[in-house]
Design a protein that fits this description.
Length: about 475
């Protein structure tokens, strides 16, 4: 069975054929870094981590790009309101770039904890302002964009296919569903900002042909994806909520600039819900991964996520995660028995299991079905070990199977045997010992007036969720 991917653009499963034989270009919309990551982020990035892992398992050389949005994403996700990062900076009374870098470090720490392999490239919006300006200039030159009072807007009427990804193609529907108020300077209420004029007190701003300002949200992904993957590339991923307006806007501006198809396969992961309601910061019901990790090991959260298909909703509850923890423990125990077992007599045919696992993953990355295969194999292994044992060859093949598929592809056995909660006494004791040593080194640096090193230690700890405060009795710390 060839790999099939559900293409959101065509609304059907299609056999995957890369643009370049043996290579896959993959772009996934990354986070807007103005707060700690929550379970919704984990759902998306664990899902696409497994996509990249499976493509590599199939023999493809994958170039995976996942951006960091550190400017331009406004509070209403469209063209009005304040920049989300600047709004957070005002709340914390710090510089916007400090907000962006702090939460970017926090994001990577959480993704590392979940076992996600780092993307090949993690470009930032602020690091690619010239590319965004150049792309906007192309769109103006080709009459797909226009400037008014220092703002530049994309003209949706100039692109017949606007809304083809989300299905919002009818102009009347676009007007009814527009997420911005009608502005007199726009030609159409659905026109979206490519460049925004900055007010004098706006901190994140750059010089441009249209005056001092900053880029809109959508232009960054087109500029960065095409820079690193080409004008047409294989797979673009992201959350379901990004179909409109973000991905529709990406398609419009990219295809108008190049005259070529932008993306060949669009993939969208579904959302996380809490008691049936969408999880999100704006709804006030998001649960940070750092808080979840205090109760459950990150590998359990990863396993919990992969028990639902990436296109299905994932409903959060402690009971659901506890059930996932119990299931994962069974797989971990089976893997541990394999590692401890002595050679016996029973030969185990792994070919049917390998075929079933492959078929599941080739069917639009069906991780839940692949996990079911692992449970079926674990049951047969446990029965064999309890009877006559597995032959030496079967033992080695079974170990290799778990390492390749359970660990290498799904990434769920990297902490095999460690099924205690993240806050176990042993872990706490170890962390306290490490922190005592780190704070001792920081204090020594301060005593020697090496404040740069002391601040670097403090900022590094902050980036991984450990807050350090200096008091008259010495430094104290806590996880945040």
């Amino acid at each position: 069975m060839s790999l099939q991917i559900y293409n959101t653009l065509t609304r059907k499963k299609e056999i995957f054929e890369p643009l370049v034989d043996g290579r896959v270009s993959l772009y996934v919309c990354g986070p807007t870094v103005y707060g700690h990551s929550h379970l919704g982020h984990a759902k998306s990035y664990v899902s696409f981590d497994v996509v990249a892992r499976w493509l590599r398992q199939l023999g493809y050389k994958v170039k995976y790009v996942q951006n960091i949005t550190d400017v331009g994403h406004l509070t209403d996700d469209a063209d009005e309101g304040d920049d989300k990062i600047i709004a957070q900076a005002k709340r914390e009374h710090i510089d916007p770039m400090e907000v962006a870098q702090f939460y970017a470090r926090s994001f990577f720490a959480d993704m590392d904890a979940l076992g996600n392999q780092r993307p090949n490239i993690s470009p930032t919006a602020t690091g690619h302002i010239p590319e965004q300006i150049a792309l906007i200039e192309q769109l103006i030159e080709k009459n797909h964009a226009y400037e008014v009072n220092g703002n530049v807007y994309f003209d949706v009427a100039s692109f017949e296919g606007y809304g083809k990804l989300s299905g919002r193609i009818n102009q009347e529907e676009l007007e009814a569903g527009a997420r911005v108020e009608v502005r007199s300077e726009k030609r159409h209420p659905a026109d979206f900002a490519l460049w925004k004029k900055a007010e004098p007190n706006h901190l994140m701003k750059w010089a441009s042909p249209w005056g001092v300002g900053y880029p809109g949200w959508h232009i960054e992904c087109s500029a960065m994806s095409m820079k690193y993957l080409g004008e047409t590339f294989d797979i673009h991923g992201g959350g379901l909520e990004n179909q409109f307006p973000h991905h529709d806007c990406e398609i419009a501006q990219s295809e108008c600039a190049t005259g070529k198809p932008f993306v060949r396969y669009w993939m969208h992961n579904n959302m996380v819900t809490v008691n049936g309601q969408k999880m999100g910061k704006s709804l006030g019901n998001s649960i940070s991964l750092k808080d979840i990790f205090k109760k459950f090991p990150p590998v359990v959260i990863r396993f919990f996520i992969l028990q639902s298909h990436y296109r299905s909703t994932l409903d959060f509850s402690d009971a659901a995660i506890e059930a996932a923890q119990t299931g994962l423990k069974k797989l971990q125990e089976s893997a541990a028995r394999l590692n401890e077992a002595q050679a016996g007599k029973t030969d185990l045919d792994l070919a049917p299991y390998e075929q079933r696992f492959t078929d599941a993953m080739n069917d639009d990355f069906n991780a839940p079905m692949a996990i079911a295969v692992l449970f079926d194999l674990a049951r047969e292994i446990n029965s064999a070990l309890a009877a006559d044992g597995l032959s030496a060859t079967s033992l080695e093949n079974a170990k290799a199977f778990f390492e390749t598929y359970a660990n290498g592809v799904l990434g769920i056995l990297s902490t095999a045997g460690e099924s205690d909660a993240a806050g176990s006494d042993k872990d706490k004791e170890r962390l306290e010992g490490v922190m005592a040593l780190v704070l001792e080194l920081r204090q020594a640096a301060r005593k020697n007036k090496d404040f740069a090193t002391a601040d670097k230690i403090r900022d590094g700890l902050t980036g991984i969720g450990i807050e350090v405060k200096d008091t008259k009795d010495g430094a104290i710390w806590k996880t945040v």
